[in-house]
């Protein structure tokens, strides 16, 4: 099957040093495999999106010589596709309405003696799995165990990451019934990304290591929706001064692209590629050849 990769930024601000690493890694992997490289704007979480940030991101990529091979996709234009996927899951009995608030979920977990780790969501205890019990529906969730049982998926679910090696996760125990349609009426990331990867024919996903934990959930959804599972590779993160992932929420500054080669050299260094002089287009050509040799 021909290689198709993608870079999928959220327009919550301009690209920063960490996001350029992810963009360059995915672009190099696609070019080294002689494949297509696509860009998708993941603007499904509209309250967090900044007007104009999508166009600025696309301009930043172009300035660095990273131009997609097909028209850009915007998630905000894909609601019908997500609704069709949810309807299919409901028809199979694999999705159900939930009336629980975040506090109710955390309180239920606390009563069971479970504590929530920092930067993680509380595992849903299944309160509404067998009915709303008088509550008003707020969201829709995937019935993980039913999907696993009906689809005969192994527990724990295992997959091979091209860089990190063998990975596994007990999705029912470690994640629980995750949200597909949020209480605010917005589509959840997990559903949107799975539907869109299939629609764009994505065969290989190269993204930051912070998204590794999402992979098992996405594989479960792919199996539930009878969609192909891409090959995954998760690349090293750029960390901020506090040791956490460099992000817009963590004070990451917008890329200074007055010298595109300097920005690309910094990103390439994170991927263990030698710095280059000359033009940034010449550097990209060199790195593709170096990347091919390392494959």
Automatic annotation (TrEMBL):
InterPro entries (UniProt xref): Glu-Q_tRNA(Asp)_Synthase, Glu/Gln-tRNA-synth, Glu/Gln-tRNA-synth_Ib_cat-dom, GluQ/Sye, Rossmann-like_a/b/a_fold
Keyword annotations: Aminoacyl-tRNA synthetase, ATP-binding, Ligase, Metal-binding, Nucleotide-binding, Protein biosynthesis, Zinc
Gene3D superfamilies the UniProt entry points to: HUPs
Sequence positions that bind ATP: 248
A molecular-function term among this protein's GO annotations: glutamate-tRNA ligase activity
Pfam name, any one: tRNA-synt_1c
GO cellular component annotations of the record: cytosol
Enzyme class per UniProt: ligase
Residues spanned by motif 'HIGH' region: 9-19
Residues annotated as binding L-glutamate: 6-10, 42, 189, 207
GO biological process, one term: tRNA modification
Cofactor binding: number and manner: Binds 1 zinc ion per subunit.
Binding site for Zn(2+): 98, 100, 124, 128
EC number: 6.1.1.-
Domain called Glutamyl/glutaminyl-tRNA synthetase class Ib catalytic: residue spans: 6-252
Cofactor: Zn(2+)
Family of this protein: Belongs to the class-I aminoacyl-tRNA synthetase family. GluQ subfamily.
PANTHER family attached to this UniProt entry: GLUTAMATE--TRNA LIGASE (PTHR43311), GLUTAMYL-Q TRNA(ASP) SYNTHETASE (PTHR43311:SF1)
Name of the protein in question: Glutamyl-Q tRNA(Asp) synthetase
């Amino acid at each position: 099957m021909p290689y198709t990769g993608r870079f999928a930024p959220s327009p919550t601000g301009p690209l920063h040093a960490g996001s350029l690493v992810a963009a360059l890694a995915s672009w190099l992997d696609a070019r080294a495999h002689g494949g297509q490289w696509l860009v998708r704007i993941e603007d499904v979480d509209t309250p967090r999106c900044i007007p104009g940030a999508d166009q600025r991101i696309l301009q930043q990529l172009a300035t660095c010589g990273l131009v997609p091979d097909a028209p850009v996709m915007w998630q905000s234009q894909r609601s019908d596709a997500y609704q069709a996927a949810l309807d299919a899951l409901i028809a199979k009995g694999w999705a159900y309405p939930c009336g629980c608030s975040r506090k109710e979920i955390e309180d239920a977990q606390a009563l069971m003696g479970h504590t929530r780790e920092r930067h993680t969501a509380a595992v849903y205890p299944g309160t509404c799995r067998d009915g709303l019990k008088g509550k008003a529906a707020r969201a829709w969730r995937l019935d993980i165990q039913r999907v696993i049982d009906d689809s005969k998926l192994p527990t724990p679910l295992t997959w091979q990451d091209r860089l990190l090696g063998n990975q596994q996760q007990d999705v029912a125990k470690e994640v629980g019934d995750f949200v597909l349609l949020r209480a605010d009426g917005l589509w959840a990331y997990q559903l949107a990304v799975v539907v869109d990867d299939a629609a764009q024919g994505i065969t290989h996903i190269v993204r930051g290591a912070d998204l590794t934990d999402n992979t098992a959930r996405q594989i479960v959804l792919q199996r539930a929706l009878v969609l192909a599972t891409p090959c995954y590779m998760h690349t090293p993160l750029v960390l901020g001064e506090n040791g956490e992932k460099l992000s817009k929420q963590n004070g990451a500054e917008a890329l200074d692209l007055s010298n595109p080669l300097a920005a690309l050299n910094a990103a390439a260094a994170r991927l263990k590629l030698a710095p280059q002089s000359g033009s940034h287009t010449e550097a990209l050509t060199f790195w593709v050849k170096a990347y091919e040799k390392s494959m």
